[in-house]
Amino acid sequence: METIVVYSSGKKPLNAYPRYIAASHPQGCCSTHMIQVGKIKKDERGFPFHYCRCQACGFTLRHFLPVVPPDQPPLIQTAPARPPKTARSGMTREGGQ
User: Fold this and answer.
1) Residue 48 lies in a domain
2) Residue 74, in any domain of the structure
3) Is 51 helix (H, G, I), strand (E, B) or coil?
4) pTM tops 0.70
């Protein structure tokens, strides 16, 4: 799979489109500083993705997007909200006071 990212631990991260020099490993900052770079593309198999780059350390990766055919329901469905629990008056525990 061809990529526009060159991973290097010896070179400083560089945003030089169409090539990016990126840190070779993610850091703790990556979970909160990732931004989308460029437009959504498709790989050779047709899966959509975009590049994400950490604004702090420069680590870059491909972020693949979920593929859901238009005729299928979403993969993740939310459960209906539960009604709030209410206190029942007059109830006592067995063996309790």
Assistant:
1) yes
2) no
3) strand
4) no
